[in-house]
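Predict the assembly for these two chains.
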Amino acid sequence: MDASITGPGLPVEIGRIDKELGKLWESADGTKTRASLINLVIYTEDPGSLEENTNLIAAIAGKHACRAILILADPGASGSGASAWISAHCRFSGKGENQICSEQITFRLDGGAAAALPNIVFSHLDSDLPLCLWWRAPFREPLDSELWSWIDRLIFDSSSWAEPLGQFALVKRIDQLAESHAILCDLNWARLHSWRVSLANLFDHPAALAILGRIDSLCITSAPAFRTTAFLLAGWLAAQLRWKLLPDEHCFECADRRRIAFNSAESAGEGISLVELCCADACFHLAREAGFFRATLRAPGVPESEFTLPASPEDVTDTLLGELGRGGRHPLYAKSLEAMLPLMRFRRDSF
Amino acid sequence: MPPSTPLQPVNPLKEGLANRAAPEPCSLVIFGASGDLTHRKLIPALYNLAADGALPAAISVVGFARREKTDASFRAELEASVRKFSRQAVSDAAWTGFASALCYHRSEFDNLAGYESLARRLDELDAVRGTCGNRLFYLAASPDQFGVILENLRLSGLNRGREGGWARVIVEKPFGTDLPSARCLNDLVEGAFPEKDTYRIDHYLGKETAQNIMVLRFANALFEAMWNARYIDHVQITASEPLGVEGRAGYYEKAGALRDMVQNHLLQLLCLTAMEPPAGLDADSIRDEKVKVLRSLRPITGDDVFRHVVRGQYGAGAIDGKRVAAYRDEQNIPPESHTETYVALEVSVDNWRWAGVPFFVRVGKRLPKAATEIAVHFKSVPPVLFKATGEAVDDNVLVIRIQPDEGVSLRMSAKMPGASLRIEPVKMDFRYGTSFGKATPEAYERLLLDAMSGDPTLFARRDEVEEAWKFVDAIREAWQSRSDDIAFYSSGTWGPKEADEMLKRHGAKWRRC
């Protein structure tokens, strides 16, 4: 690990973290209140991400009080060592009189110490609160069933994976571990939430809804780094509209044997920028612009041709906050994944 | 839960987008579109829903009022209101998208032709915006206009959805001024809309903490097991505010605290506190249980009223260090007024669970602070173990704060650190604002969404309203027989001493909120 990295906050001995946190609050002048709804553990192996992750925690703690544990691991480091820091993120409450604070404990685990991850996590949790683990690194064999069995929400971002097919397979295995009850939260899926809401809204008009059953082409334009996002959206549409993939024909097919061509295009920028659903006499475009969606409809019986719809920010902080705020399980994610994975396998070269 | 309209095809892309029923495309017509409620609450609530992506794209909002306005001028005045009253900052893009759904329809409330032209306009909106023939009418006008509006909705056929769509009506409080007028209003509503399509709005039920009462009770074995006469000594429900009559003299002088607050908001809170677990979370299962509570209330009649109810009126005093006038010296209040600005009741719920547990309910104006809360006072531990030490042990109190500072706290006893045995009360406190940084949605947002989704759970049913009036009317009847019982209290205090005496008889005292 890069020796120049220093942890944020007050350096502490690992065995004295609880005591030092206690002191931190004792030294507060009574205007600070500690709050916590969840344990948010972020695991990363990116040595340059300490500041980014700390900023993320600060932003999240401002809306969703938590005990944050940031773990920066370097399993491949030659030496073995562990060090820790503590800090607090405070915000003023409604009337600005008191500050509401969330704690952050930062660990740096080098070499063999990285194997102590479950112990590090378990010994510093705020007891009885849900454990959300945000895994910001590639999943690897062997899977530590002890660790995964205690996770309530496993957060990851499939758009960041270099080898999505292999990673999805590992996530599936984690999900199937006997003791695992973790809810899988793919931020790539969470990022699609406002796309899904807006696409559904395009078909509010009865005349538009009638056309949904005649769609014969789907095109999704996304930034190169967000191809899995585009495929996940295609998977959702396929699952909801009961389209099946015909690998040899490069298209989907629905129950009435109608074929639906699927194209993915690339554009500069971030995320998905355009979704087009068309048939011979109609076309529905949904384009993302700054802060909103622009819907353009050309369809018989649908008089309104252009309107705007709200779009949630897609940056990682807002996406995670949206996910934590909505909570719940994601049964449609599993269905969408099932529809998407054959498509990804078929277009393996794209990933 | 909410009834879906089988004639309308289902949009498969809407599945699973939220863990609640999706609001359906519709036209929302607001009667009284120039009024305060529309500007301060309804339109900002609708804007916030739109900005959060919670509204269907196929929606139109039609303001119906007497004043001459164009769609553009109506939108411009609503934009100013939204910028002033919205709970979140207004984004130009979100406003532009939302504003395209707004339009204005000018008509007198008693002019049938105005409703017929409204019907044509709604048909056009169906075609243009895809609102599917669904209509939601919001009676935000003065209650004396409700009758004529409902009658004209019926005569113009607007009380029925178009082409498989639905028609619903939201009735704003007050739901009458006594039982006969409530029945009359309910009959009027029923003449135009069936009960299943009638949504009587009590915004208290849309508040997060009011909804949390059921979760707290029925999702926590700890509390529900102790939620009965065996463990609970008494319950206090308080709604206090430092404000005076504030320009509502005409209305308030006729209504008084009992009708303005107790008949609706406070009895609803009492029902949520006292009800049995419902068979399910559907609207009627919950409302059935609430009605059972209302039917179990021991009527307070005749001379009992003067033992179990205290009515008061504020005199001059000080609020936040400033002198304030007595109620009788307020503008447009008669100097001999007997209208109660404070009322405290001792309510008995005569059923198996609550036998012998008094529910003390109080509401008042010009009290020291704004607070609405339910305080559940548990029985004392047997005075055995700590008696010898001379230490008093306070009772456990569970407080559900409805507003402001929404949350839940539990008072319990703890040993003070040190060699001697000293027992002090400590408080465990959960605050929504502390744990959740994001703004809580306004009650109207939730309720409007529910009405669009066909979920009447948080709205009052006819029998609920009428049972509540029956209880309240008996008290008013006794009050009408005399006027010497009104107790005066200084503004800025916690109400008349007679109310304190009422609790003292039970060995209790009002909580300092």
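Chain B touches chain A at residues 8-9, 11-19, 25, 50-53, 56-58, 91, 93-94, 96-97, 100, 127-130, 132, 433-438 (CB under 8 Å). The CA atoms of residues 60 and 434 of chain B lie 37 Å apart.
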